[in-house]
């Protein structure tokens, strides 16, 4: 058994059986198997490629097996998916893809299951990728279902992405977006300001961002002592916008309300350090709070990391902070390039459950905001319910808040002109196909300098 295939299969099994995240378990699996760079690249392509196109492969397997994919044993199905990816989307020799996957099934489930797998894969190997694409698309019941099979995205995700693009008048970009979701993203590094200098090649927008010079980026990270780390350029732009939203005054107090795993926190901390600003962070999940503390080790100075429910954080510290980042928990539909299994895990129910949480977190942040202070609301999702819908819902209940032009702020941050869509709100939506970043959303809200509640208190005095 080729080690790269075994590693890829083990990752698929962990994702299926334990709801594991491929981006978290693949690197240690590669290290444990001691794969050389070539095999590590193959294992990554096999695991990520199979996960990204799972929906398409399941439709093909169902035809070849003459039974629905969900009626096939999970261990067998993962081996079939892995082989189908090799047969239809790579240059791996057909006999190697079939034989190795049949051996995986035999080891996991025995001879009978391996005979079944062999028969299914022989049928798949007899037709070209184009023939299979036409065959499964012919069975689609709607144009959206046909697009879902072709692009390997669930129908509900396609419709959500279409609505988000339509808000900018750019629905014609949908095919490009779906294609970008299925491409392997480049590794982007961040150089923490005042602690490290960006290397080459530079990324086009964030002054802190540059591409991995090749090879294992963790060597660069280790050599820097943590002042360089992997971080999407869109995430960097969000943190930079927090600092650029208004001139920084010495002695300001900042907060990262939903800080885990700490990448944006570290970037904010390095900026705060340069301006004599106090930064605090909050993360309700203890394991993620530990990640925040680890991320902050490279930044000199003390950052308090709270472990409280962000929904009540503002009520216990009213008016305490001058700038607050709310990087809210979300569906993660903006990072499907990096988290290939997410598209098959999330459902519209997740959106319905997350939106009330997002509204409460943003409301809590506004309660914690000092007069004249600014909240940045961000999500790694372009879903309108999680983005503009949340902001509009919160603004309906607040008379003390003004929305700033986040597009203008971000344009002042970037090193190069940035093509931002305009839905008339001044909010920012980044896109993988247009900007090469995750689909980060950003809105900036400012509390009035003289809050009516403060004025009433003065009158009572």
Q: How many domains would you count in the coordinates?
A: 2
Task: Tell me the number of helical segments per DSSP (H or I, 4 or more residues long).
Answer: 22
Characterize the quaternary organization of these chains. single chain
CATH topology category name of the largest domain: Rossmann fold
| Cα Rg | 24 Å
What would the principal axes of the Cα set say about the shape? globular
CATH hierarchy, class of the largest domain: Alpha Beta
Strand content: 5-15%
Tally of DSSP β-strands: 11
What is the second-level CATH architecture of the largest domain? 3-Layer(aba) Sandwich
Structural class: alpha/beta
Give an overview of the whole structure:
- The chain is of the alpha/beta class and 461 residues long.
- The chain has two domains: 3-139, NusB-like (N-utilizing Substance Protein B Homolog, Chain A); 188-454, 3-Layer(aba) Sandwich (Rossmann fold), CATH 3.40.50.
- It contains 22 helices and eleven strands.
- Strands 4, 5, 6, 7, 8, 9, 10 and 11 form an eight-stranded mixed sheet that branches. It has a three-stranded antiparallel sheet with strand order 2-1-3, with helices on one face.
- Helix 15 (286-296) links the parallel strand 5 and strand 6.
- Helix 1 (3-18) runs parallel beside helix 3 (37-52), helix 5 (74-89) runs antiparallel to helix 6 (94-109) and helix 6 runs antiparallel to helix 7.
- The protein is globular, with a radius of gyration of 24 Å.
- The termini are far apart.
- The relative contact order is 0.09.
């Amino acid at each position: 058994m080729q080690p790269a295939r075994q590693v890829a299969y083990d990752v698929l099994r962990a994702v299926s059986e334990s709801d594991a995240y491929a981006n978290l378990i693949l690197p240690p699996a590669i290290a444990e198997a001691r794969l050389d760079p070539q095999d590590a690249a193959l294992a990554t392509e096999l695991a990520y490629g199979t996960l990204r196109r799972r929906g398409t492969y399941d439709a093909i397997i169902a035809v070849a097996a003459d039974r629905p994919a969900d009626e096939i044993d999970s261990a067998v199905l993962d081996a079939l998916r892995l082989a189908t990816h090799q047969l239809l989307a790579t240059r791996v020799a057909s006999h190697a893809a079939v034989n190795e996957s049949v051996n995986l099934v035999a080891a996991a489930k025995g001879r009978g299951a391996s005979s079944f797998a062999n028969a299914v894969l022989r049928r798949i190997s007899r037709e070209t990728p184009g023939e299979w694409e036409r065959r499964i698309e012919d069975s689609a019941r709607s144009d959206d279902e046909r697009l879902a099979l072709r692009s390997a995205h669930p129908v509900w995700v396609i419709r959500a992405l279409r609505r988000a693009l339509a808000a900018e008048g750019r629905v014609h970009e949908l095919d490009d977006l779906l294609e970008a979701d299925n491409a392997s993203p480049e590794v982007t590094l961040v150089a923490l300001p005042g602690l490290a200098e960006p290397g080459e090649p530079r990324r086009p927008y964030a002054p802190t961002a540059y591409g991995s010079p090749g090879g294992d980026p963790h060597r660069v990270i280790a050599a820097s002592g943590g002042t360089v780390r992997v971080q999407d350029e869109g995430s960097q732009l969000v943190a930079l916008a927090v600092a650029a939203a208004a001139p920084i005054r010495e002695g300001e107090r900042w907060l990262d309300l939903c800080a885990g795993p700490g990448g944006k926190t570290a970037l904010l901390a390095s900026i705060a350090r340069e301006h004599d600003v106090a930064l605090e962070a909050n993360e309700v999940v203890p394991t993620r709070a530990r990640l925040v503390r680890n991320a902050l080790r490279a930044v000199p100075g003390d950052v308090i990391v709270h472990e409280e429910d962000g929904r009540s954080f503002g009520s216990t510290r009213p008016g305490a902070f001058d700038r607050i980042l709310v990087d809210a928990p979300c569906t993660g539909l903006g990072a499907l390039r990096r988290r290939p299994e997410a598209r098959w895990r999330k459902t519209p129910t997740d959106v319905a459950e997350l939106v009330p949480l997002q509204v409460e977190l943003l409301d809590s942040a506004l309660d914690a905001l000092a007069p004249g202070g600014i909240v940045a609301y961000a999500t790694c999702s372009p879903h309108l319910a999680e983005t503009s819908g949340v902001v509009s819902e919160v603004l309906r209940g607040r008379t003390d808040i003004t929305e700033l032009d986040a597009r203008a702020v971000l344009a002042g941050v970037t090193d190069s002109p940035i093509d931002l869509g305009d839905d008339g709100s001044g909010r920012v939506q980044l896109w993988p196909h247009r900007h090469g970043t995750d689909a980060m959303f950003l809105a900036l809200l400012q509390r009035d300098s003289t809050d009516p509640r403060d004025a009433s208190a003065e009158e009572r005095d």
